Amino acid sequence: MVESDLKATVQPDNDTPGAESKDTSAAFGFQVQPEFHPIPLGAGVDEETFSQQMREFARDYWGEQEELEPLRRFTAAMYGVNSQQLAAGGTVYHALGIFPIGGAADGAQPPERVSRCTLTASVRDLDNPAPQIAAAGIAETLDRSKETGEVQLVTLPAGPAVVHIAGSRAVWELPDGEQERFLVRIEVWIPFPEDDRLLLLCLSTADVQDLFHYQAVLADIADTITFGDADEDLASASVAVARQARPFG
Fold this sequence. Notes:
Elements: E1 8-10, E2 28-32, E3 36-38, H1 47-62, H2 69-88, E4 91-101, E5 113-125, H3 131-144, E6 150-156, E7 159-174, E8 177-191, E9 197-205, H4 211-222, E10 226-227, H5 232-235, E11 239-240
Helix pairs in contact: 1-2
């Protein structure tokens, strides 16, 4: 269990691509730690409203200082394009996680550093004869794929699922030579219990040294997944995140 309690409740809007059905069997929800800050996806709003949402996100990220306006504009544009691409691919939730590492839990000592990650939840169509069979098929497919990584079948409170951990390396050609960056991705694939769909939670980070920390973070989130109307709190909330003056520190 990570130190932060799970507080924010997430139930993606059915107007989001990939979650069109109003049938409660296709609904789902989960909880995330307060260190996660939702990034607008632009689902169900016009372009002007979406642009305003991204400007507010960038303002929360950088603060109100006038000299940071160029950074706010760049952040809003960059995350805006990325969010639209994610939404088009079935993503229904996107958040930036900012976690203090080290220090004292009571605040007596400041954190040694800050670690960042991104979290997405997407819905995909899946021929799902039964969750156990679907999960086994997903595990076998991932295990046989060319992408290296670790694959494990697990049982969550919401049903059978697959955990997939994989790393990647990105290289940029710069005037003074190559620059490389390593990324790690932790995925939880879970078939809907009574619907031909699949929920995919994906947590990725460039802070690869924090892999074990983020495994615990995603494990705690996965334990809260519910489908249908099993949880009244999830059924009555969209995204309940307490607003902060400077949520990004």
